[in-house]
């Protein structure tokens, strides 16, 4: 199974999957009810509103899809012939890696869907008597917490309290504050805000102590000219509150971020930063692979780490960052 982005061009296929899935599972709906929803779903799928992800079989056939709005799972449907094969759980896991904390509204009269989400770890946080269209189809409001990454630096002592986890929707103000404090300017903080809306995929992690965000790291896509098949990420910005620096939090963020990049199948990561610091994580000068940064920076500060050994063999060329970086990629702290 493969997951790929979808869009309005997939509307016809996705509407067919939705219709067949609803008829097979939503037994509390009459045919008149279903026909009422068809134009609403068609318009939603054809719009730019949902972030659509498609689940495909090896043959390329679309097995199902999900639609996200921020960290809310607005829709998840599988074609009847592909149900009970693990596809739904795989989509949920993929959404959780993308967004961290997830919410979803489920029809209370659909016990199989309720059981599925509860088996994925969602918990009920509320209930509404009516659905979003005002019809008498009660909704359960469920939430799945962002995963906490079980990572602490090797030399962490018994007082280590930080947890590394995916950034949540509600973390944005705190992340902005951390980056402003760490860099003593809003440039990096504003860049993070911009990348959230323009770049995909992103890996955004926070370090949290006693419910306070004290550190943040971001990985965003980069491209090597002439090698579009390589999945590469750029590390940075990365910042820690000044009063919490030199206590292992930055190292924990880097290690956890690299582990997440590896788990999601990225081939390599580049970084602009201090060679003495990033070499401890296995980064080497990119010149060793005949790679150059698009920005005019000293060669020794542009480094790379292979996550898939040998993936950069024979590679050469210029690495480009997302256009949001504008005049140059800021160095990742420290």
In short:
The protein is an alpha+beta fold and 334 residues long.
Explained architecture:
Helix 1 packs antiparallel against helix 2 (31-46) and helix 5 packs antiparallel against helix 6. The protein has helices at 11-25, 31-46, 87-99, 111-119, 172-183, 187-198, 249-263, 275-278, and strands spanning 2-5, 51-56, 62-69, 72-78, 102-107, 123-128, 139-144, 148-149, 163-166, 203-209, 212-224, 232-240, 268-272, 284-285, 291-293, 302-306, 317-320. The radius of gyration is 22 Å and the shape is globular. Helix content is 29%, strand content 29%. It has eight helices and 17 strands. The two termini are 40 Å apart. The longest helix is centred in the N-terminal third of the chain and has 16 residues, at 31-46. The strands form two sheets. Strands 8, 9, 10, 11, 12, 13, 14, 15, 16 and 17 form a ten-stranded mixed beta sheet that branches. A seven-stranded mixed beta sheet has the order 1-2-3-4-5-7-6. The mean pLDDT is 90. By secondary structure, the chain is α+β, with helices and mostly antiparallel strands. The chain has two domains: 2-144, 3-Layer(aba) Sandwich (Aminopeptidase); 148-325, Gcn5-related N-acetyltransferase (GNAT) (Aminopeptidase, 3-Layer(aba) Sandwich), CATH 3.40.630.30.
């Amino acid at each position: 199974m493969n997951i790929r982005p979808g869009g309005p061009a997939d509307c016809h296929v996705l509407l067919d999957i939705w219709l067949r899935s609803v008829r097979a599972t939503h037994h509390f709906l009459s045919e008149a009810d279903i026909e009422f929803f068809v134009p609403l779903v068609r318009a939603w799928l054809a719009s730019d509103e949902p972030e659509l992800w498609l689940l495909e079989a090896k043959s390329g056939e679309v097995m199902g899809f999900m639609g996200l709005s921020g960290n809310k799972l607005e829709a998840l449907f599988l074609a009847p012939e592909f149900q009970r094969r693990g596809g739904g759980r795989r989509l949920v896991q993929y959404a959780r890696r993308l967004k961290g904390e997830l919410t979803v509204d489920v029809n209370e009269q659909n016990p199989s869907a309720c059981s599925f989400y509860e088996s994925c770890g969602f918990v009920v946080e509320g209930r509404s008597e009516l659905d979003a269209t005002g019809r008498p189809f009660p909704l359960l409001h469920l939430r799945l917490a962002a995963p906490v990454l079980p990572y602490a630096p090797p030399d962490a002592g018994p007082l280590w309290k930080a947890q590394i986890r995916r950034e949540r929707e509600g973390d944005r103000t705190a992340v902005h504050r951390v980056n402003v404090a760490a860099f003593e300017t809003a440039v990096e903080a504003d860049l993070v805000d911009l990348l959230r809306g323009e770049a995909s995929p992103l890996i955004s992690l926070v370090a949290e102590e006693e419910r306070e965000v004290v550190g943040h790291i971001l990985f965003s896509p980069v491209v090597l000219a002439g090698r579009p098949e390589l999945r590469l990420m750029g590390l940075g910005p990365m910042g820690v509150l000044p009063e919490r620096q030199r206590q292992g939090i930055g190292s924990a963020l880097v290690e956890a971020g690299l582990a997440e990049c590896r788990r999601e199948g990225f081939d390599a990561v580049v970084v602009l930063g201090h060679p003495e610091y990033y070499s401890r994580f296995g980064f080497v000068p990119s010149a060793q692979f005949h790679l150059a940064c698009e920005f005019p920076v000293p060669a020794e500060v542009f480094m790379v780490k292979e996550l898939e050994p040998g993936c950069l063999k024979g590679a050469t060329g210029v690495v480009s960052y997302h256009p949001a970086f504008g005049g140059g990629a800021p160095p990742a702290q420290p």
